[in-house]
Structures are given as C-alpha cells and as structure tokens.
Amino acid sequence: MTKQELALEVIERLKKEYPDADCTLDYDNAWKLLVSVRLAAQCTDARVNVVVQDLYAKYPTVEALANADVADIEAIVRPCGLGKSKARDISACMKVLHEQYHDNVPDDFDALLKLPGVGRKSANLIMGDVFGKPAIVTDTHCIRLSNRIGLVDGIKDPKKVEMALWKIIPPEEGNELCHRLVNHGRDVCTARTKPYCDKCCLNDICAKNGLEHSK
Ligand code: SF4
Questions:
Q1: What is the pLDDT, as a whole number, of residue 198?
Q2: Chain-centre distance of CA 10, in angstroms?
Q3: Nearest atom within ligand 1 for CA of residue 196
Q4: What pLDDT does residue 215 have?
Q5: Mutation test of ligand 1: which of 144, 189, 190, 212 has the most ligand atoms closer than 8 Å to its C-beta?
Q6: pLDDT of residue 192
Q7: In the chain, N or C terminus with fewer CB closer than 10 Å?
Q8: Pocket of ligand 1 contains residue 166 by CB under 6 Å
Q9: Is 120's C-beta closer than 6 angstroms to any atom of ligand 1?
Q10: pLDDT value for 211
C-alpha cells in the first residue's frame, strides 16, 4: 500500500469511527478561537473552555481585550499555565486585530502567521475551522499517530509532518482528519499508555504492527 492509499483508507475508517469530529474548543467567534488556541498550549481544551468564560465575562470584545491590563489577563488565564506569555500574546494579538483588522480575524494564512502568538498549528486551525479552507493541524496527536500509522516515517517536526501530509492527503479532507486523529489519539492510540491496538479500527493497516507502506 502506498502512503497515499493508506491516507485515504485511514480517512474513510476514521470518518466511520468518529462521524462528528470537530474542534473541542468552544467558541462563537473567530477571535475567541484565536484566544483559546493560545491558551490550549500545554493545557486541556476542557480547562480552556472554563477559563475563557471568566475572560469574556470581563472582556467581551476584541477592543475590550486589546485595552485590558496584561496583568489582569494573566490573573484570569493563569489556571491554563504559562500565564505570563499567554497573556502577553493575547493582549498583543487583540491589539493588532483591533488596530489593523477592524476587530476581525484575517482569512489569510500568512496574515494569521504574523499575529503575535500564532504559529502554523493555530493558523491552520483557524483556516480550517473558521473559514472552511484546506488545513492540516499538526498537534501532538497528529504527529504521534501519523508516525505510528506510517503516514510519515520518523518525522517529529510539526512543519515537516504538515508538509509530508499535504503530499498524501486530499486538501479538503485535512482539517477533519486532524480532528479525528485527536479523537483517536485520546481514545485508542494513546500517548501515556500503550496504544489499544487490539480494539483499533486501523489495526490491519497500521505500520506499528509491522506493515510497511511505500512512498
Ligand atoms: S493499530 Fe495501534 S498504533 Fe496503530 S493506530 Fe491503532 S492504536 Fe495506534
């Protein structure tokens, strides 16, 4: 099986396994997803979803957050960890949105990448989830599972994994596949325990079980 054939098979099987795969960060506005994605670094989505409620109760708009005292943002987001740097990035990012984008989030990948605290993973998530454009979000689950399954071989660098996946995944499938890899990584192909290969829907095609996949 080639890697492209493997990718298509993985996409189809995970679609059946997780038909409703979606982002697990709560948001009703693009700028709120930007905030949540920054807070989600080294923190669970569940905790972020709780913490942002306090943040938006006090600062309900881009403008309010752009004008907020960074120390006050830090005090609210501290439970997510890395409070100082996350508060600094959120403040700087909201200032740019307010001053340059009329409180909107740009629907351009390169413009997103220029926002403070926004890397390729976050920019891809926004492009895919908010704007419905092709996206590949290489978070920890995507990287781990792509290597185990054999979609990539021994690549850990997020950008390199992303570039390798772009070559074998139909663009329109990337965003949802990545959400499903998160589901599968949490439920079955886990990081902290041995993966539950015996109950995995990819068991018979997975490289972890000795199957080789050509380029
Ligand atoms: S077979 Fe095992 S290693 Fe492969 S994807 Fe499934 S759980 Fe992960």
A1: 95
A2: 19
A3: 7
A4: 75
A5: 189
A6: 85
A7: C
A8: no
A9: no
A10: 72
How far is the C-alpha of 64 from the C-alpha of 71, rounded, in Å? 14
Write the pLDDT tens digit of every residue in 82-116: 999 999 999 999 999 999 999 999 999 999 999 99
Q: What is the pLDDT of residue 179?
A: 96
- Residues 39-54 have pLDDT tens digits of 999 999 999 999 999 9
* pLDDT for position 64: 98
Q: Is the CB of 92 under 6 A from ligand 1?
A: no
Determine the atom of ligand 1 nearest the C-alpha atom of 207: 4
DSSP states of the chain: -BHHHHHHHHHHHHHHH-TT----S--SSHHHHHHHHHHTTTS-HHHHHHHHHHHHHH--SHHHHHTS-HHHHHHHHGGGS-HHHHHHHHHHHHHHHHHHSTTPPPS-HHHHHTSTT--HHHHHHIIIIIT--------HHHHHHHHHHTSSSS---HHHHHHHHHHHS-GGGHHHHHHHHHHHHHHTS-SSS---GGG-TTTTT-GGGT---B-
In a mutational test of the pocket of ligand 1, which residue from 187, 208, 209 has the highest number of ligand atoms less than 8 Å from its CB? 208
- For the chain, which ranges sit under pLDDT 50? none
